[in-house]
Amino acid sequence: MESIGDLGEFGLIRRVTGRPMGPDVLLGPGDDAAVIAAPDGRVVATTDVLVEGRHFRLDWSSPYDIGRKAAAQNLADVVAMGARPTALLVGFGAPRTTSVEWARRLTDGIVDEADLVGASIAGGDTVGSPTVTIAVTALGDLGGAPPLTRSGARPGDVVAVRGRLGWAASGLHLLENGLDGPAELIAAHRRPRPVYTAAEEARSLGVTSMMDVSDGLLQDLGHIAELSGVAIDITAALVPLPPSLAESSVSRDETPTIPSEGKTSPSESGVGGVPVPDPLHLALTGGEDHAFAATFPGGTSFPAGWTIVGHVAEGAGVTVDGSVPSLRGWDHFRS
Amino acid sequence: MESIGDLGEFGLIRRVTGRPMGPDVLLGPGDDAAVIAAPDGRVVATTDVLVEGRHFRLDWSSPYDIGRKAAAQNLADVVAMGARPTALLVGFGAPRTTSVEWARRLTDGIVDEADLVGASIAGGDTVGSPTVTIAVTALGDLGGAPPLTRSGARPGDVVAVRGRLGWAASGLHLLENGLDGPAELIAAHRRPRPVYTAAEEARSLGVTSMMDVSDGLLQDLGHIAELSGVAIDITAALVPLPPSLAESSVSRDETPTIPSEGKTSPSESGVGGVPVPDPLHLALTGGEDHAFAATFPGGTSFPAGWTIVGHVAEGAGVTVDGSVPSLRGWDHFRS
């Protein structure tokens, strides 16, 4: 079987070059660097590194899914700034014995996710590494508009979210415990589905601050609160919840294991003795769905897809129903 | 000792934020993405991944040197396109037990190298990884000029280089064999010194194609020959050579080892029985000095620092003194 070691450093890039580039890539792979359109005169840029065993598991996700996920989390960052993604650069480290087919499927995943927003892979680097590592940089164009930062929330604003909360974390819980359903939750872990139109929608609604939820709603709203110099209170009853895990079934092929400490909040006994985490806990602390959280002037009327989950006040920090959340005090949040 | 695991994902970015940003960084670390000036309306972008054990060794290079090298090789790619580097994004993977001091020195190296060209670290990502990995993305601005690609060489052009050839490869040979000098060669391996003014100089000389030498002059000129649809012949007697390794001394603390097969071309017996590679071989095949190789119209008069090493003709491929080089036929090149 042909390995990426056989291909050499330029091999993967050549494979990518075979795919058509979007109009924003003025000079693609093959030179010392790419040249990408930045008609706005500014470029939005972000980079994320995904590491085997930490951000994905080779036995839980296909290379195609890993590619989709790696692209999605970077594209979501660009969209969270209110920009249109234009191009990706992909650094890829893997054992030289990695099959070309594996790398091709990874690349296909990246390209297909980028296609959703009209972005292209403009360049990259392939290196040998004992640890499968994917470093994606995403670039975007603001189209003359101001960036949507984390610092613009004002007292009196409402907090709203667009996208799923806690789905990917639910899927991870299922995989960690050898459970094979609900399939939609496992799929959500493997392949996040950010609502890439969120920034455009948010601008039309008068958004004051915005970010993508990558580390959990509580933690990420903490960044908006800190950088905006405000307090944010979440109303637990308003938070959209992932489907319940109570009906999840044990896979015949796998033995349930105890979930990692701190990752889940045991609340009731599930199938096979595995504690079932609370949906509200998952919605407030689960990352990786790449929902968008944003603040808007009070009284904003939202279209379908947006859910008000809280409000902004004078002060500092994030509270839930007026109380400071604590990972040890999760009972507080149970409905 | 404080580790990067204690700092958390945002820690390193905060450390970086403490350094002043250049004027091109319109929005720095702390949001979902950075915003960087791209006054030209296009942005030059490149990414390189450096992996422990493959691109650097923790016992041979200090974290500061690794940072300098990681930045230099990406900045050189931007300069090779004829652009002014504006910003870097740094993805950093390391065991969570890595000391904060180690990471700080790495970051200092990156920032100091970027300072040489007025670029700043605009963002990044820090993740846990069993393998120390540094993924650097560099951005640059073309200032209204066309990019300097690999595809513009024309028959009749001369080939000239700016910077060192074979120095870093010589230093690597010394380290691999437990030799402690010449110190300037070991330093060249640890910290390349690209001549960042090369692109500006080349433009003023009417450059037709340009690239940075990262994989060795022969291999890299092969890319210019292929993309320009021309043949390139190198005149061996014109190639600037690194200092001879014949006088290199054996470190008292280390036992010489046999160099890796294929990496060096034994030509004479050195101290301690270690074969000494031929300087011309090192100059033609050694990468990592990040010299710049470029083509110019025939008859171009070069200022100090530039060395003509060959010429461009009709045809294809790269020859040395009219013959096709072969790694097995290195005797051909010995003077």
From TrEMBL, chains A, B:
Q: Tell me which Gene Ontology terms the entry assigns under biological process.
A: thiamine biosynthetic process; thiamine diphosphate biosynthetic process
Residue positions annotated to bind substrate are H55, E288, W330
Q: Which positions does UniProt annotate for ATP binding?
A: G124, D125, R150, S214
Q: Name one GO molecular function term.
A: thiamine-phosphate kinase activity
Instruction: Name the residues that bind Mg(2+) 4.
Output: D32, T46, D77
Q: Which residues form a coiled coil?
A: none
Q: Where is this region: Disordered?
A: 246-280
Which residues are recorded as binding Mg(2+) 2?
A: D48, D77
| Domain PurM-like N-terminal as annotated: residue spans | 30-140
Q: Where does Mg(2+) 1 bind?
A: T47, D48, D125
Q: Which reaction does it catalyse?
A: thiamine phosphate + ATP = thiamine diphosphate + ADP
Q: What is its EC number?
A: 2.7.4.16
> Which positions bind Mg(2+) 3?
D32, D77, D212
Its annotated pathway reads:
Cofactor biosynthesis; thiamine diphosphate biosynthesis; thiamine diphosphate from thiamine phosphate: step 1/1
What top-level class of enzyme does the UniProt entry assign? transferase
Pfam families, alphabetically? Answer: AIRS, AIRS_C
Q: Mind listing the UniProt keywords for this protein, alphabetically?
A: ATP-binding, Kinase, Magnesium, Metal-binding, Nucleotide-binding, Thiamine biosynthesis, Transferase
Boundaries of every PurM-like C-terminal domain copy: 154-242
Q: Which residues bind Mg(2+) 5?
A: D215
Annotated family: Belongs to the thiamine-monophosphate kinase family.
Please describe what this protein does: Catalyzes the ATP-dependent phosphorylation of thiamine-monophosphate (TMP) to form thiamine-pyrophosphate (TPP), the active form of vitamin B1.
**PANTHER family xrefs:** THIAMINE-MONOPHOSPHATE KINASE
| Further remarks about this protein from its record | Reaction mechanism of ThiL seems to utilize a direct, inline transfer of the gamma-phosphate of ATP to TMP rather than a phosphorylated enzyme intermediate.
Question: What is the protein name for this chain?
Answer: Thiamine-monophosphate kinase
Species of origin reads Actinomadura harenae
The gene for this chain is thiL
